[in-house]
Amino acid sequence: MVDRDLWITVMISVKFRFMTSRIDVVIPPLSQAFTYELPPQFSAQVNVGSRIVVPLGRRQATGFVVARSDDVTKKLPYALKAVDKPGELFSCFMPQQLKFFEWIADYYAEPLANVIDTAIPSPVPKRFSKTVCLLKAQPLPARSKIAPKIIAALQSAGGRADYGLLAKQIKGCAGALKKLEEAGLISVHTEEMALQQPFTTAVPEWAPTELQLNPAQQAALEALAGMTAERKFHPSLLHGITGSGKTEVYIEAIARCLERGEGSLVIVPEIALTPQLVDRFRARLGDQIALLHSSLNPRVRWESWRRLVEGQALIAIGTRSGVFAPVPNLRLIIVDEEHDPSFKQNDGLRYNARDLALVRGMLEKCSVVLGSATPSLETLQNALSGKFRYLTLPSRPQGSSVPAFTLVDMNRSRLYQRPSQNISSELYQGLIETLERRQQAFVLYNRRGFASYLQCEECEFVIECPNCSVTMTYHNSTNALLCHYCNMHIVPPEFCPNCNKPGSKSAATKPAKLVQRGAGTEKIYDELRELFPDAVIDRLDRDSATQHDQYRAILDRVRSGETQILVGTQMIAKGHDLPGVTLVGVADCDVGLHMPDFRAAERVFQILTQASGRAGRAAAPGKVVLQTRVPQHPSLVRTKLSDFSGFSEVELRARKLLNYPPYCKLLRVVAASVREHEPLEALTKLRRYAARLIEAKQFAIQVLGPAPAPIEKIKAQWRAHLLFKAKGSPQLNVLLKTLKGLPNKSASLKLIFDVDPQDML
Ligand code: ADP
Ligand code: ZN
């Protein structure tokens, strides 16, 4: 009986393949879906997940198929438009991902079309190429001026040329090409472009192909493998100190999935910053890895995506947008360095890839591992409460213990007592010893540039960006004052523009000068060059490495031993595994500590612990020197003690007291406008509206603000913000949808709704 039913179903679906179907298409940025008729000639190539061009009003629009129905017997009260020129048809996502996209659309209150558009790498390069081949050069059609040009171009190109290029080269050649083809002089082929090789370089020799795991690693691996073997949602935290071998555990867990033909997805903060991590995965797992990040050329990135959709690769490694990767038969999702703020997207669809990894795991029934040496308090709380399984790696595999810490109180030494302005005797001594032992050092200063700002020695005036309410940073290498928010450059004035106003008395007599205050990576680099003129010193920050290859080159020079001291911003605190590095100095631990953000202390603790974790990862022991002006601050004291649990306990208590995440859910609304008073006024109205809703529905939602944002102006837009705190997501989601649905009648006002905000500035 069952067999007969099945047989009938198969027959019906075969029959429908030759009939007209209906499809629902979503088109960014529109929120509703549109139904179209799909003529039989396109039927075989279109399914849920296809990207398609459809008629919309008087134009053609690109959208995504989200539903398909082959049963078109039900009559509709209106006539449907039919797909006529669908464009290049291919799958952009797997049908089983649709539920995930719908969940996201609901949670962030965004149109489904925008979610899919964000998920899919863009731009989508052309899949087919049209090539023109020369068959014979004679006889040329009479009276054509263009035909001889085409033949000449083909001859000089060696007999074949890309159709598009030819059309660009010779204006108006389409007609002549057709004639030449009919006359049998040329042929025109449309062919699918070959996939490019995903990796162009060999796996470097240092990358291990297989390691004997130590007992703690083995235990974590078995726990993971056990969870992965069940087709269930299993979230866990892998909390291992820096250099404890978490990456090796991930690699082995993926290898086990691969053996069974199951897919894995790894998301990491910034691949460009950790190119050597991918080498380690390749060494053990081979080149069947699809890489997904924005520094890749769009064609390569799209091909990685396609290889996954078509089932040719089972492993994806990507940055935050990698969470959308169409991994076939997905069983394991790994979020490495899960505490990293870069998992949160700060424009457009403001999603958090770490959180979405968990949602995806829940919907697709797979294991999700969040790994870190410094888990976010949100994740830690989930592990402590038993929501996540808590796996730990308490020591480093090669026996080297955590590094030895020295905390230097910079208040206790006078400027003239120090070897140089920003380098204490302790750090200087450490560097001398490191260089003598032919080892390497990292020096962190978490701000780029040469001086944080320029200030007048007389009136204390500070030069601020005219577009943003922040100081402008002095860059020595380009001799420019630069705004790190809007990128505005100006030539630094020599004299104070405030007290030397034209015509003023001081301007005529003795003009007041501007002096440099604060430091940056350029300044530290300069000081170290003075102190160690013979050492090879390099710098890693957004100014010294603007491209992927440059990061790699800088890090490769450290691995080869050429670079002796590397100065950098937080970019050097990322997950680098460089065995020669034994000393880490942090020139100023206090950068970021006094930010008006409830996560400031957590962030500083994370960055200091992560930076320290770069020291002594192999056999030689590591040493860390932390320079500060607030030596009693818990972020510093606990870093020095390598005491994550002590730090998190104090911090969690403070969060509970003040009702901040992980004890509540946040929604931040930012208003921005060129009109100074508009943001606050708009948010005051919004607050009033929200308060009525909260009262009517009896929601347990607390409202803070509105208030001017800590950075009151960015890119010439004035800013204010409003914060909602709720116990759980559902009530906040109702509020979000209602507020987002209100009409905004002002052309100058921009409202941003940030669910689970990371950025509070
Ligand atoms: P984490 O990801 O926790 O920071 P890694 O996986 O990068 O740690 O490991 C740190 C270093 O220790 C790497 O160089 C790695 O190759 C090495 N390592 C990891 N596990 C072992 C092991 N079982 N035996 C020997 N070396 C190991
Ligand atoms: Zn600016």
- Specify the number of helices: 22
Helix content: 25-40%
- CATH top level label of the largest domain: Alpha Beta
CATH topological fold name of the largest domain: Rossmann fold
Assign the structural class, choosing from mainly alpha, mainly beta, alpha/beta, alpha+beta, or little secondary structure.
alpha/beta
Q: Terminal Cα separation, in Å?
A: 65 Å
Description:
- Helix content is 32%, strand content 23%.
- With 761 residues, it is an alpha/beta fold.
- It has 6 domains: 108 residues, no CATH class; 65 residues, Arc Repressor Mutant, subunit A, CATH 1.10.10; 179 residues, P-loop containing nucleotide triphosphate hydrolases (Rossmann fold), CATH 3.40.50.300; 192 residues, Rossmann fold (3-Layer(aba) Sandwich); 68 residues, no CATH class; 91 residues, Alpha-Beta Plaits.
- Strands 12-13-11-14-15-10-16 form a 7-stranded parallel beta sheet, sandwiched between helices. It has a 6-stranded mixed beta sheet with strand order 5-2-1-4-3-6. The protein has a 6-stranded parallel beta sheet with strand order 17-27-26-18-25-24, with helices on both faces.
- Strand 3 and strand 4 form a beta hairpin.
- The radius of gyration is 30 Å and the shape is globular.
- The mean pLDDT is 89.
- The protein binds adenosine-5'-diphosphate (ADP) and zinc ion.
- Zinc ion binds next to loops.
- The site of zinc ion (ZN) has 7 residues, from loops.
Please describe the topology of this protein.
Elements: H1 2-16, E1 21-26, E2 33-38, H2 40-43, E3 50-56, E4 59-69, E5 81-82, E6 90-91, H3 98-107, H4 112-119, E7 128-134, H5 146-156, E8 160-162, H6 163-169, H7 174-182, E9 186-192, H8 215-229, E10 234-240, H9 246-259, E11 263-267, H10 275-285, E12 289-292, H11 298-309, E13 315-318, E14 330-336, H12 353-364, E15 367-372, H13 377-384, E16 389-393, E17 404-409, H14 425-436, E18 440-444, E19 453-456, E20 473-475, E21 480-482, E22 489-490, H15 505-508, E23 514-517, H16 521-531, E24 537-540, H17 548-559, E25 565-568, E26 581-586, H18 600-612, E27 623-628, H19 634-640, H20 644-658, E28 665-673, H21 678-697, E29 701-714, E30 717-726, H22 729-741, E31 750-755
Parallel strand pairs: 2-5, 10-15, 10-16, 11-13, 11-14, 12-13, 14-15, 17-27, 18-25, 18-26, 24-25, 26-27
Antiparallel strand pairs: 1-2, 1-4, 3-4, 3-6, 7-8, 7-9, 19-23, 20-21, 21-22, 28-30, 28-31, 29-30
